[in-house]
């Protein structure tokens, strides 16, 4: 019975996700689902991206968190539209939550929608949100074995951002090892070492965004 309940929940979510994907396709919006463990740097990445590309694209963010609107306020300070979803203990966003949040975002003329999922390397991987791509962040402070420990997250992501590389001199993290583990799970995943603090590697991230946005037109 528990298996049937879980299947029903996922199937209901997938039906809503198809509707969201159709909406994003109709409006030519590139939608990205950002996933990571807590503290890996999703909000910092968004702040930097929104600030650096704000003159190039019209962007908005759906922020998912257990409590507080701290991240949404940080994002809104860049001038981008931002809507907060508090899951009240839930470990992930689902398509229904995103659908409701979109009622508070002006989608007309929007180029890129970022969905910052709840910090968790397990649950968010199970729920499609109608996104074009899943993007997983892994901080170098977390350990280079995380792709092995959380294979589903990396096997379904288009991009893995190895964040906080400015801290590499102070931590035990092998970039090549982490990349090999990710690519063993998903040969097509693009691995990008980046630092939101000093900007290292963000040019490659921005070029990828430009390419994917162009593909949605």
Helicity level: 40-55%
Structural class assignment: alpha/beta
> Measured on Cα atoms, how large is the radius of gyration?
17 Å
Which runs of at least 5 residues are low in confidence (pLDDT < 50)? Answer: none
Which CATH class?
A: Alpha Beta
Biggest sheet: strands, sense, closure? 7 strands, parallel
Overall residue-averaged pLDDT value: 93
What is the approximate shape? Answer: globular
Named CATH topology? Rossmann fold
Percent strand: 15-25%
The H-and-E topology, N to C, reads as: HEHEHEHEEHHEHEH
| Separate helix tally | 8
Account of the protein in words:
This protein has helices spanning 2-26, 42-53, 70-76, 95-102, 146-149, 151-155, 175-185, 202-216; strands at 30-35, 59-65, 81-86, 112-116, 133-139, 159-163, 190-193. The chain is of the alpha/beta class and 217 residues long. The chain has one domain (2-216): P-loop containing nucleotide triphosphate hydrolases (Rossmann fold), CATH 3.40.50. A 7-stranded parallel beta sheet has the order 3-2-4-1-5-6-7, sandwiched between helices. The N and C termini lie far apart (44 Å). The relative contact order is 0.18.
Secondary structure layout:
Layout: H1 2-26, E1 30-35, H2 42-53, E2 59-65, H3 70-76, E3 81-86, H4 95-102, E4 112-116, E5 133-139, H5 146-149, H6 151-155, E6 159-163, H7 175-185, E7 190-193, H8 202-216
Short description:
With 217 residues, the chain is an alpha/beta fold. 40% of the residues lie in helices and 18% in strands.
Write out key terms for the chains shown.
globular; 217 residues; seven-stranded parallel sheet; 8 helices; Rossmann fold; single chain; alpha/beta; 7 strands
